[in-house]
Amino acid sequence: MAAAGALLRRAAAAVPRIPFALPAIPTPDPPAPVLEAPALALPAAGAAMDLMAVPKKKVSKYKKGLRNGPKALKPVPVIVRCRCCGRVKLPHFYCCSGERGNPDSSSS
InterPro entries, alphabetically (predicted)? Predict the structure, then answer.
């Protein structure tokens, strides 16, 4: 094995070398030094780390709706009096013909 290595070295030395020059490529300026943020303080080996709760699966829209349903705003009924007859009614509801009743005139 050692003889084979010596033969290869002699054969490689016998091959003439051709000088090859690459064109000069301008090198870009080195980047500005980056200021590093201070390292985060890691807890000591004996200290306990606080872990946050992480859900195992995505909550579906149905389950989210069941949970948040009672939190929805409830409609507040507004009660108004009819300007013509004075009866209590909900706004935007028809109550009477809209004419005030005059005791002088009789309508047929």
Answer: Mitoribosomal_protein_bL32, Ribosomal_bL32, Ribosomal_zn-bd
